[in-house]
């Protein structure tokens, strides 16, 4: 028998069965918290990004304002099949016929569904008829049967009073939504969570409005409906994250494993992939709506609805993941109980927990002299303090929630 055979036979079963530990995937580490993203540590970065976006949005809203549709400000809109017409030439024809310069002349849709739209201040019936006849004589637009006809030129007029009423109702709807959402979160979760969620929701609204002001997109009733939809999506995503934070931090004062901020960061990691997946799944049908209904069919109302939803879904995910939870941690860290618990966790990790050793210790000379020290009147040495480092526990559980019986 060779030496190598002898060695293999004498190896212990545990040595023979030992295998390299499988590495945890990055996706699994997001859930367990062993190697996820430290969102809370970058709180200042998220605050800076949010602050810059808010400043830019508010400046453009104040300087440029919004491009409101006739539904809000009143006016007249005329439309006809776009064909190969030039918007500049159509605008000139309209101005010559009515003496009024249109606010905007644009082509929406694509292919056979392309439509030329003329937006202007409110026109009288006489001016509308003049514009229709002038445009028909100049361009001969075709109706649905493919025949030249003045009826191919449609028009719609909204009074200023109606636009004012729609605007007031829009504002009332937004305020009612914010109030109801705040009340729900305050009862469903915690006070600090309600404050953080509403702050993130307000940021969503301002940034989305700022994007519309920067790009000059038209604000229509469909835009407002889309805004309420995406704000609902944002608050839903935030509630999901906060619900996990609440689960992780329940009874956190009784555990020295993680601080409140670390438990909250773990919750964000555990819901991060879910938020990304939800965003992608939500964005796909919106993109499909924009391609089919807007680009191919040229339905302008659906364009307004799809665009605001696409912008809002992305912004809502950012605020839920990168803003709402850091705001919550900042609010919680101001509480005395959270400060005290954080100090205790840090002290435990640094090995500053001291235990009293009750065994009396004497110096070496006293031990060698026996009873001589007793006759010399030397008092026994007081119990000595020794520093004991708390052992580090490798916790791979998905939740750091403390319960009775856990360390």
TrEMBL record:
> SUPFAM superfamilies, from UniProt?
Multidrug efflux transporter AcrB transmembrane domain (SSF82866)
* Membrane topology per record: Multi-pass membrane protein
Pfam family name, one: Sec_GG
Which GO biological process annotations does it have? intracellular protein transmembrane transport; protein targeting; protein transport by the Sec complex
Residue spans of biased composition, Low complexity class: 1-17
State the compartments where it is located.
Cell membrane
| Alphabetized GO MF terms | protein-transporting ATPase activity
Q: Which UniProt keywords apply?
A: Cell membrane, Membrane, Protein transport, Translocation, Transmembrane, Transmembrane helix, Transport
Q: What is its main location?
A: membrane
Residue span, Protein export membrane protein SecD/SecF C-terminal domain:
149-333
Q: Which residues cross the membrane?
A: 45-63, 170-187, 194-215, 221-242, 280-300, 306-329
| Any single GO CC term annotated in Swiss-Prot or TrEMBL for this entry | plasma membrane
The domain of life is: Bacteria
The residue ranges flagged as biased composition, category Polar residues, are 360-374
Stretch list, region Disordered: 1-21, 351-407
- Note the subunit structure: Forms a complex with SecD. Part of the essential Sec protein translocation apparatus which comprises SecA, SecYEG and auxiliary proteins SecDF. Other proteins may also be involved.
| Annotated function | Part of the Sec protein translocase complex. Interacts with the SecYEG preprotein conducting channel. SecDF uses the proton motive force (PMF) to complete protein translocation after the ATP-dependent function of SecA.
> What's the family?
Belongs to the SecD/SecF family. SecF subfamily.
Q: Kindly provide the name given to this protein in its UniProt entry.
A: Protein-export membrane protein SecF
Organism per entry: Corynebacterium suranareeae
Which gene name does the record give? Answer: secF
């Amino acid at each position: 028998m060779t030496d190598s055979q002898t060695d293999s036979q004498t190896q212990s079963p545990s040595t023979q069965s030992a295998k390299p530990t499988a590495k945890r995937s990055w996706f699994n580490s997001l859930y367990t918290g062993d190697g996820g993203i430290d969102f809370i540590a970058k709180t200042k970065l998220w605050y800076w990004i949010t602050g810059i976006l808010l400043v830019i949005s508010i400046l453009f809203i104040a300087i440029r304002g919004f491009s409101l549709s006739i539904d809000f400000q009143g006016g007249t809109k005329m439309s006809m099949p776009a064909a190969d017409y030039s918007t500049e030439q159509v605008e000139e024809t309209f101005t010559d016929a009515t003496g009024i310069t249109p606010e905007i002349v644009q082509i929406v849709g694509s292919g056979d569904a392309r439509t030329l739209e003329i937006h202007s201040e409110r026109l009288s019936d006489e001016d509308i008829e003049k514009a229709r006849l002038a445009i028909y004589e100049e361009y001969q637009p075709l109706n649905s049967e493919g025949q030249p006809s003045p009826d191919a030129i449609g028009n719609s007029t909204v009074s200023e009073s109606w636009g004012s009423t729609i605007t007031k109702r829009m504002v009332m709807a937004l305020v009612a939504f914010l109030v109801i959402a705040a009340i729900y979160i305050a009862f469903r979760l915690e006070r600090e969570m309600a404050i953080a969620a509403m702050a993130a929701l307000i940021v969503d609204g301002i940034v989305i409005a700022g994007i519309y002001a920067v790009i000059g997109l038209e604000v229509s009733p469909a835009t407002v409906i889309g805004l309420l939809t995406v704000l609902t999506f944002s608050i839903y995503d935030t509630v999901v994250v906060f619900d996990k934070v609440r689960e992780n931090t329940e009874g956190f004062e009784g555990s020295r494993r993680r601080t409140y901020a670390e438990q909250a960061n773990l919750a964000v990691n555990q819901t991060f992939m879910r938020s990304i997946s939800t965003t992608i799944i939500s964005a796909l049908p919106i993109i499909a709506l924009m391609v089919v209904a807007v680009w191919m069919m040229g339905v302008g109302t659906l364009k307004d609805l799809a665009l605001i939803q696409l912008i809002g879904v992305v912004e809502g995910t950012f605020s839920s993941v990168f803003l709402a939870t850091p705001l919550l941690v900042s609010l919680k860290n101001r509480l005395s109980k959270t400060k005290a618990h954080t100090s205790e966790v840090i002290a435990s990790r640094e090995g500053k927990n001291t235990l009293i050793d009750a065994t009396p210790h004497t110096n070496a000379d006293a031990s060698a002299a026996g009873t001589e020290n007793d006759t010399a009147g030397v008092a026994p040495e007081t119990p000595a303090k020794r520093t004991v480092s708390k052992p580090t526990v490798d916790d791979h559980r998905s939740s750091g929630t403390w319960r009775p019986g856990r360390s």
